[in-house]
């Protein structure tokens, strides 16, 4: 009986793995096929794979610059979110002061605001400081839009940490900063990693504000995708597949490398807070 259950469970996992990997494989194969084969109405049972499209896109478009801009802006914005979000989450979770709940709700409400509301003020602000078309401006924009979700995710994990742990550390003479650095952060590390991954995905997918703030020098992969959706050559499907795969692969590699912490982070802190 146990062997049958084991076989059934293994079969279900294999089928689920195939279903999960299939879109990735589909995008990779589309990126390697000639455009003529992709748009032809006749079925092609033995497709041709070539890197000609990759070389053409690489020569005609500054893809490395777009990729570099995406990686730097995402990494920088996540760093800023964690640098500001961890102390803010610690304050909201562990301290008691007047207006604490109102401040937390205000921080969360910034995520509910439509990007179009702040597009013109951000454009004018960065234009006055001569920061348009710079990755530094994109870092600040991504940080501002994702900071609230980072604060609230980390806060939910810090609430679950027993207060007795901090009381014991204070008895030994530890300061609040030392408690945060040496006790609280290691204990809620899965939650911090989860917040970082979610902020990375949101930053990588940001399109509207990137289009408003950026120009040629600060374009990211999300803008590069839009460049192949029309024009005199029509929709260049293999180029879209290639760029989408390039944008997706770093996040996939990040999730795979920290999957143990991520799985714990997605299940912890889900009840309280």
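^ Assign residues to that structure.
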């Amino acid at each position: 009986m146990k062997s049958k259950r084991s076989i059934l469970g293994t079969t279900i996992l294999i089928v689920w793995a195939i279903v999960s990997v299939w879109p990735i494989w589909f995008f990779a194969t589309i990126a390697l096929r000639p455009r003529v084969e992709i748009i032809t109405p006749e079925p092609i049972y033995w497709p041709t794979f070539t890197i000609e499209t990759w070389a053409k896109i690489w020569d005609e478009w500054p893809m490395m610059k777009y990729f570099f801009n995406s990686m730097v802006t995402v990494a920088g914005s996540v760093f800023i979110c964690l640098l500001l979000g961890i102390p803010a989450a610690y304050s909201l979770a562990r301290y008691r002061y007047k207006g604490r709940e109102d401040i937390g709700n205000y921080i969360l409400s910034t995520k509910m605001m439509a990007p179009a509301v702040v597009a013109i003020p951000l454009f004018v602000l960065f234009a006055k400081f001569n920061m348009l078309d710079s990755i530094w401006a994109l870092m600040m924009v991504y940080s501002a839009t994702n900071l609230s979700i980072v604060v609230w995710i980390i806060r939910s994990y810090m609430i679950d940490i027993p207060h007795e742990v901090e009381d014991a550390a204070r008895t030994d003479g530890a300061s609040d900063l030392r408690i945060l650095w040496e006790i609280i952060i290691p204990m809620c590390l899965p939650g911090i990693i989860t917040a970082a991954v979610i902020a990375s995905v949101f930053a990588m997918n940001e399109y509207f504000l990137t289009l408003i703030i950026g120009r040629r020098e600060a374009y990211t992969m999300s803008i590069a995708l839009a460049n192949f959706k029309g024009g005199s050559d029509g929709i260049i499907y293999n180029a879209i597949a290639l760029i989408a795969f390039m944008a997706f692969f770093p996040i996939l590699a990040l999730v795979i490398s920290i999957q143990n912490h991520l799985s714990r982070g997605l299940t912890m802190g889900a009840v309280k807070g």
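The chain has 14 helices and no strands.
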